[in-house]
Amino acid sequence: MPALKLxxxxxxxxxxxxxxxxxxxxxxxNPCRELFxxxxxxxxxxxxxxxxxSCSRVxxxxxxxxxxxxxxxxxxxxCQSELQEIAKRMGVDRIDPAWLGAxxxxxxxxxxxxxxxxxRLQGPDGATLVVDMQNRPCHFPGRTIEDSHxxxxxKFKAAAKELRGVTAWVECPGVLKLGQALRLFAPxxxxxxx
Length: 194
Known about the structure:
Elements: E1 4-18, E2 30-32, E3 34-38, E4 41-42, E5 51-53, E6 68-70, E7 75-79, H1 80-90, E8 104-107, E9 120-122, E10 128-134, H2 140-148, H3 156-159, E11 166-172, E12 174-177, E13 181-187
Parallel strand pairs: 7-8
Antiparallel strand pairs: 1-2, 1-8, 1-13, 3-4, 3-12, 5-6, 7-11, 9-10, 9-13, 10-11
């Protein structure tokens, strides 16, 4: 029996983007129509690379910030309906995925930010992403949102709690395009209840 089972859920790609650099304190993504994925992640993205320096997210494991570790945060995948909920909580009309440094926006997978770690999202050509874990809201998008919606940026972290999507890394290279559907495979195991 396979360790990963195909679920009934398909996520339609409604938006794609690449973060080209980190020259500003804001985090913004350039939209694109297709995304070329290699083992190091999205081509042209500042988040690409097989390895990365450790950061505050893993300080419990690596107290020395900057320790070289495997890059399991090559992509930021968010859900269209969850972006709409964040906007509603913030009292704004919409959240542009570019403001979040998002790589992919999907529609059609319910409770997306809570899909299990090690789930796979697979495109038509076999391009496969492995879900690392739920992404936590940080203050960088708030700065960018503040530029478009004065007073709203400081609401982002609280509004995006549990709705920030997931981080992922490339298991099998390929190309993703707008409008394609990604199949969701989930680990075939019971939920951990420590």
